[in-house]
Design goal:
Chain A is mainly α. Helices cover 77% and strands 0% of the residues of chain A. Chain A has 14 helices and no strands. In chain A, helix 5 (87-122) runs antiparallel to helix 10, helix 8 (174-200) packs across helix 10 and helix 10 (215-243) packs antiparallel against helix 13 (271-299). Chain B is mainly alpha-helical. Chain A binds chain B through residues 11, 14-16, 18-19, 22, 26-27, 29-31, 37, 137-138, 140-146, 149-150, 152-153, 157, 240-241, 244, 247-248, 251-252, 262-263, 266-267, 271, 274, 278, 281-282, 285-286, and chain B through 100-101, 103-104, 107-110, 112-113, 115-117, 119-122, 192, 196, 199-200, 203-206, 216, 219-220, 222-223, 226-227, 230, 233, 237, 240-241, 244-245, 248-249, 252.
Chain lengths: 309, 269
């Protein structure tokens, strides 16, 4: 287990370093002079020079990178060009909303995907199965930026059950979470189904049935528990992506999380904030995946002992 | 039915995209008297918030998504396959570097990197294609690398090597044909992903700029008038769904058809 852990950790550190490098380089990808784009062509030479110095763009690239890394180590992500506030504070302000949305979404996703997948597998070939797989196909194909407005139209504008946007009251999290869950549950229920089908064909399921266990015990205790292992990995990937803030869904609902902050920063050309958002989201994604892998290895000795690769 | 319906939808998509160059369309013509008019005999899909014909804008949007899909999928499939194949076949340090680069690119969830790139490069359809290709090549690289790793010790490759075939010849003549099936499946699903991604970027205001039309931008513009004129949002969304659903259905069928060869090619079950 220990060698597996160190191996995975070392890999994650390398990846995080790579991510930091790419995020750092992003600002240098801007065609032309980033300072000019930020200030517009009408800006005076003095203002431009001041911003250039403020961003450290007057220094050699390697030196800028060292400064950037140095700042990161102290959790200093720079200052927002727009609000002149510390980027770290801005992120911390938005993080709770994104975490809340991610948590609710995950719960809704599981509540949709597990029953659907299990039912579809147990009643393979039945209308249940067809229905679940049709839902899955539709769910994968409907983009969040369309499903979101549709849900707003029906549940906010026509029925008036939930607020249209923003984060006010308990009800406001329902529609964004539902929007995000549909796509995720569509993918997850397929995975649960195929994993469940595989497990239900195993010898130990036949044994459990033969010794006269009631069907629900066979399905949930012997079947689902084993079928969930591969599902964990996918769930980890999904949670990681969620923590990163579903940029589009947060924009649809004006949900004040990291995703919306990213878009706001892009629109106001607040490059330090864009960099920080992308960095936070990606590093969060890497960390969640790392934890998933570790949890997976902990649950499945075949991996931690090196057999399963 | 299960193949013809999605195939028909996709053919229609392509035809509509091409028809934009031929038909005498006026997608930017403003009819002030028709602002937010619902569908009727004059315009099947009604008029938008500026009084423009939604049907005609939908056609132009079809061209946008079609062109972006073709460009992004071709660019990323070519680049990714080349990188993955060469990396796996050459092996050694080069391969380890590539694996690391792939891992780093995979660390950006979803289209986040594309959003950031498109945002920083500035709006415009060229930048959308570039941003999506930069993100898209990784999938093909990973897939082709895995394929080559399992194929390169096959007897026919060794036979070609011992007969003195060059590395490039072996990759193109002896490896690529066997990798074609999974790559085609990946590219098919890639079309669906790109259509959604392009519309998503345009929805965020990072794609096609006015007065150009994109399904995503049409949805964004329509959300402001949802209570009075829901048809603004419904038409482009339904178009995206129809195309993406068709591509996914076809991809599934294709995977079922080619699955047998997939199993022998990758050794997976």
């Amino acid at each position: 287990m220990l060698s597996y852990l160190t191996q995975r950790l070392a890999g994650a550190v390398l990846v995080v370093f790579g991510v930091i490098s790419i995020v750092f380089l992003l600002i240098h990808l801007i065609p032309g002079d980033p300072v000019e784009i930020m200030l517009g062509e009408a800006a005076s030479a003095t203002d431009r020079e001041a911003l250039r110095v403020a961003l450290g763009l007057d220094q050699p690239v390697m030196l800028q990178f060292t400064h950037y890394l140095h700042g990161l180590l102290q959790l200093d992500l720079g200052t927002s060009l727009q609000s002149r506030r510390s980027v770290t504070d801005l992120l911390l302000e938005r993080l709770p909303a994104t975490l809340l949305l991610a948590g609710v979404t995950l719960a809704v996703t599981l509540a949709m995907a597990l029953p659907l997948g299990v039912f579809a597998a147990v009643r393979r070939g039945s209308p249940w199965d067809d229905g679940a797989m049709t839902f899955s196909m539709l769910g994968v194909s409907i983009p969040n930026f369309w499903l979101g407005p549709l849900l707003i139209l029906v549940f906010s504008l026509w029925l008036g059950w939930f607020p249209v946007s923003g984060r006010e009251g308990v009800g406001s999290v329902v529609l964004p979470a539902l929007t995000l869950s549909t796509g995720l549950a569509a993918v997850l229920s397929r995975m649960v189904r195929s994993s469940m089908l595989e497990v239900l064909g195993e010898d130990y399921i036949r044994t459990a049935r033969a010794k006269g266990l009631p069907p629900h015990r066979v399905i949930f205790h012997h079947g689902l528990r084993n079928a969930l292992l591969p599902v964990i990995t996918l769930l980890g990937l999904q949670l990681g992506a969620l923590l990163g803030g579903a940029v589009i869904t947060e924009t649809v609902f004006s949900w004040p999380g990291i995703g919306l902050l990213t878009i706001e920063a892009i629109q106001s050309r607040d490059y330090p904030v864009v960099q920080a958002c992308v960095l936070l989201i990606s590093v969060g994604y890497v960390l969640v995946n790392l934890l998933t892998d570790i949890a997976y290895a902990w649950a499945d000795p075949r991996i931690r002992l090196g057999g399963g690769g | 039915m299960r193949v013809w319906f999605p195939a028909g939808v996709l053919a229609l998509w392509g035809l509509l995209a091409i028809s934009v160059w031929i038909l005498p369309l006026t997608p930017n013509l403003i009819h002030l008297e028709h602002i937010l008019t619902p569908p009727g005999p004059g315009a099947w899909l009604g008029y938008d918030d500026l009084g423009r014909d939604i049907g005609e804008r939908l056609l132009v949007g079809a061209r946008t998504s079609f062109l972006v899909a073709v460009w992004v999928v071709s660019l990323s499939a070519l680049l990714g396959t080349a990188v993955g194949t060469v990396s796996a076949y050459w092996g050694g340090l080069w391969d380890r570097v590539i694996v690391q680069v792939i891992d780093i690119f995979l660390a950006f969830p979803g289209i986040l990197l594309a959003i950031a790139l498109a945002g920083l490069l500035g709006p415009g359809i060229d930048n959308v294609v570039m941003a999506l290709a930069v993100v898209g090549w990784v999938g093909y690289a990973r897939l082709s690398r895995a394929q080559v790793l399992s194929l390169k010790h096959r007897e026919h490759v060794m036979a070609a090597e011992s007969l003195g075939s060059g590395r490039v010849r072996i990759m193109i003549r002896h490896l690529l044909p066997l990798m074609a099936a999974p790559l085609i499946i990946e590219a098919t699903f890639g079309v669906a992903a790109v259509v959604i991604a392009e519309a998503g970027l345009s929805f965020l205001g990072l794609g096609v700029q006015p007065p150009g039309a994109s399904w995503g931008a049409m949805i964004r513009d329509g959300t402001r008038y949802m209570l009075v004129a829901p048809h603004l949002v419904l038409a482009p969304g339904a178009a995206i769904c129809a195309v993406v659903l068709s591509v996914n259905l076809l991809g599934d069928r294709l995977r079922d058809r080619l699955d047998k060869r997939l199993i022998t090619a990758t050794g997976e079950t």
